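Below sits my pick:
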Amino acid sequence: MVLQSGAGIDAWLSLSDFYGRPAYAATAEVAIYVREDQRGKGQASILMEHALHAGPALGIFTLLGFIFAENQASVRLFKKFGFVEWGNLPDVAELDGETRDLLILGRKLVN
């Protein structure tokens, strides 16, 4: 899903296969990006609501978010929508010359 304005793409959401094996077909990684000048205006919440409602119709019953631990805005967004921490991978990524912890946040869409 993409949110646009006269200035172009304001925000986007993607759902990606998780792990690429048939056993995980009902699980997807959710990623959201909001252009810097559009942050704090509710676009991420609109996109997350869309993912939560669209998931079951797409055969997706579990959503995962992979978020750098220091990205507290994203962590707050996911937790606001009922995601909980399912894992913490310390120092598994390097970005801008610094190692980063990766949080795995998950949510079941159907019980």
Observations:
- The mean pLDDT is 95.
- Residues 43 and 102 are 23 Å apart (CA to CA).
- The helical segments are 43-54, 72-80.
